[in-house]
Amino acid sequence: MLETLRHLTQRLNEATDLQQAMAFVVRAVKDRLAVDACSIYLVDASGVNFVLVATDGFDPRAVGSVRFARGEGLVGLVIERQCPISLSDAHAHPRFRHVAEFGGQAHHAFLGVPMTHLRRPLGALVVRQLNDRVFQSDEEAFMMAIAAELAGLAYATAAGSVPPLAGGTAERAPSALLRGIKGAPGIGIGTGVAPPVGADLDAVSDRSVEDGDTEALAFEQAVDDVRAELRGSAERMAAGMPSETHAIFGVYLEMLDDDQLFADTLARIRAGSSAASALRRTISEHVRAFENMADAYLRTRAEDLRGLGRRVLLRLQSGSSQTSVYPSRCVLVGEEINIARMADVPVGQLAGIVSSRGSPYSHAAILARTLGVPAVMGLGAVPLDQLAGKTLLVDGNDGCVHIDPGPDLVGQFERAVRQQVESADALRSLRDLPAETTDGTRVVLHANVGLSSDLANALESGAEGIGLFRTEFCFMLCDSFPSEDDQYRVYREVLESFAPKPVTMRTLDVGGDKGLPYFPLNEDNAFLGWRGIRLALDNPGIFLTQLRALLRANAGIGNLRVLLPMISSCREVDAVHQLLSRAAAECASAGHPTNPVPLGIMIEVPSAIYQMSALSKRVDFFSIGTNDLTQYLLAVDRSNARVAHHFDSLHPAVLRAVDSAARAARDARRPISVCGEMAGNPAAAVLLIGLGVDVLSMAAPSIPPVKRALRSFSLQQAQGIAAQALAAEDPSEVHRLLESALEEAGLTGSSTTRERVS
Ligand code: PEP
Ligand code: MG
Asked: Which of 378, 379, 376, 369 is nearest to 640 (CA)?
């Protein structure tokens, strides 16, 4: 059974045509379970009826005409209960419904399992047998595994509903609506742009060319560029980088100088292949050879070879591609939209982000929010290439994407956009007013910034400083580690633009969902792996370069504060102090005297909360990262769409953790801020102030609505709300509490508690 399951799963994963895949499934399941009929039902466009869309064992003319409402008959019961129903004699069940289209046979045994995608019922997979039969648990498990795969495919190809059925067969109509998860609020309309293949060797298709000489030259140039890049990186990183990390540059260089690799690729180019396809074929051939080696060490070289192939491909692509031309209103579509892709679109042209993976807490969504661009994430396995060139209406408020919307729908959404703009304009009048509770308690509001293009938004928003500058975003835009001078220029520009207001720069926080194309990590549990301060301390060469650039950028301005990500122990902070002193000494000896800077840590790993008193002896301020704190406390991967509904920063456990941290900071007389996404939710902001948080830092567009909420409550009211929230037993109680508090303050419509928090 396992073999059939593997085979079926593979077929489904490769399938591009739902109807063909379903025909294959019903036949294979019928044979494997030795039943008399296997059928698939899918929800129709009305969302109410479940229609027979494929069968083996019944008259094929029944396809498209047999339908069950939810709860109707045994099929409807499977869908209503969302669990398998197994009966040895279905006729005896009170819900049994005779279906004339099935012909006169009286099937007795029945096993039906639901097909569900992200908790939404999409249909059912059903087998029937003429005689009585008790289905075994492994048969039920087999059916459930197939149903789960089918649901993914059905959702992907039909976008959650069956294409209109006519004449007994399903017509393949283009889907009009894709449902995902709210990534960033707002509504945007634009033309879908699928990202280029990127440095993905597997995605390079075979292409032949006439002008082999030009291709060969391009390949040789790309190899030379990569060689120079690797030598440069190796030299820059030589100091302080652990030998095994540094060794990777040497390994790459050796591989690059391998005559065989070079000669094989050139031979393929000369035989008429494009440089990229020749490279792909050569690399896969050599990778296969490594993978088949008996020696475990040599087998791991296969991954290095792939890494090297990606680098050369990246060079080939950047060398050959002209600057990308984007439509004036562009919706970026992709499996994952990386920061570099977003930064590539000229400011003002990015109308939306649509991705099949990710969640509101993925860094792409966070960046979209700071840029004020609507985003829908976690669409599942949708055929993304089919969205390119289509008009896409991205509804980040509702988490859905309309494909080629008609004029009525566009008109309706344009009205909503106008309303959004009007209310944003109305809130802009708050820009120069203080964020102050009704009884005069001042709250400091800062902006989170990731890219230089966010700076204008942050300056415009009335932010009193930058509470979180994610320096890793700059690293993510480069082809190799940026030099000290390159970093210096970026940091200097940010510090100068905000001076004399404070700017909190967080040191490199890569790992997790923030990868560097030139430093592949490939970890099984990336969020629990080589992340943030761990990676920085293990690579002092990289870290010292950044510290020197930061200290130098602050010279003569003095508004820099340095924030450390992912701190989990005092030892890490002690190590940073030593490196900071060394960086300052190195700057001084290079003729750049620097001044001491306030040092703070992120409170985002739960262990830090239990060590606040010891940590406070070592740092000047704290900043709570509720995104990671929620992820680690609730054990929910922040960028996994499947579990996104479990991610809730208003969970009472998270609130109690924030409360403990705020109390400990107060006891130690250290300021504490929140810079996670939670701070940008108006209702949550009131709650955080009630918990004793001093500063809130958020995406710039969130500042006006948060300010309005804070100006509508007294500190005492906020403290009352916080006390009630801390006593809650379930997150839903906290959501209700905040919703009614906003309603009583007359703030409904500005934002719901779910909109930006979870
Ligand atoms: C956080 O974890 O809350 C945070 C602000 O950092 P990031 O989202 O960049 O991990
Ligand atoms: Mg974090």
From this structure: 378
Q: For ligand 1, which residues put their CB under 6 angstroms from it?
A: 366, 468, 470, 509, 604, 625-628, 675-676
Closest CA to 534 of 617, 607, 640, 610: 607
Is 570 in the active site?
no
363 included as an active-site residue? yes
Residues 83, 84, 88, 93, Cα dihedral to 10° = 30
Helices (H), 56-101: 73-81
Contact 529, 521 (CB under 8 A): yes
Catalytic residue among 117, 400, 675, 735: 675
Task: Give the global pTM.
Answer: 0.71
| End-to-end alpha carbon distance in the chain | 40
Handedness of CA 333, 335, 341, 343 (dihedral sign): positive
Write the burial class of residue 377 (CB in 10 Å: 0-12 exposed, 13-18 middle, 19+ buried).
Answer: buried
Would you say 57 and 63 are in contact if contact means Cβ atoms under 8 Å apart? no
Contact yes or no for 399/179 (Cβ under 8 A)? yes
Q: Which two tokens stand for residue 212?
A: 């082999």
Per-residue model confidence (pLDDT) at position 163: 36
Measured from the Cα of 677, ligand 1's closest atom is 3
Helix (H, G, I), strand (E, B) or coil at 739: helix
pLDDT in tens, 608-655: 999 999 999 999 999 999 999 999 999 999 988 888 889 999 999 999
Q: Rounded to an integer, what distance in angstroms lies between the CA atom of residue 218 and that of residue 318?
A: 11
Catalytic one among 363, 402, 446, 735? Answer: 363
Rg of the chain over all Cα atoms, to the nearest angstrom: 29
Q: What is the per-residue pLDDT across 10-37, written as a single tens digit (0 to 9) for each?
A: 666 666 567 778 888 899 999 999 999 9
625 Cα: distance to centroid of ligand 2 (angstroms): 5
Concatenating the DSSP letter of every residue in 574-617 gives: HHHHHHHHHHHHHHHHTT-------EEEEE-SHHHHTTHHHHHT
Q: Mutation test of ligand 1: which of 367, 369, 470, 648 has the most ligand atoms closer than 8 Å to its C-beta?
A: 470
Separation between Cα atoms, residue 57 and residue 74, nearest integer Å: 18
In the 8-state DSSP scheme, what is residue 136?
Answer: P
Phi-psi region of 239 (alpha: psi -120 to 50; beta: other; left: phi over 0): beta
Q: How far is the CA of 144 from the centre of ligand 1 (A)?
A: 37
pLDDT, tens digit (0-9, with 9 covering 90-100), for 529-539:
999 999 999 99
- Residue range 27-71, pLDDT digits in tens: 999 999 999 999 999 988 777 889 999 999 988 888 888 989 988
- Cross-strand pairs, 67: 51
Q: What is the best residue among 469, 473, 505, 604 to mutate for testing ligand 1's pocket, by most ligand atoms within 8 Å of CB?
A: 604
Q: What is the DSSP string of 162-229?
A: PPPEETTEE--PPP-EEE-EEEE-SEEEEEEEPPP--S-GGGPPP-B-S-HHHHHHHHHHHHHHHHHH
Contact between 754 and 735 under an 8 Å Cβ cutoff? The reply is yes
Dig out the tokens for 152 from the structure.
Answer: 């993914």
Token pair, residue 173, equals 């109509």
Task: Locate the ligand 1 atom nearest the alpha carbon of residue 631 and give its number.
Answer: 2
689 closest CA partner among 428, 444, 462, 370:
444
**637's torsion region: left (phi>0), alpha (psi -120 to 50) or beta?**
beta
Six-digit token string for 178 = 């894709």
Cβ contact 533:507 at 8 Å? yes
Structure-token match 């045509």, residue found: 17
Point out the residues of the chain with pLDDT beneath 50.
159-175, 197, 240-242, 320-323, 750-758
Q: What is the 3-state secondary structure (H, E, C) of 502-554?
A: CEEEECCCCECCECCCCCCCCCCCHHHCCCHHHHHHHCHHHHHHHHHHHHHHH
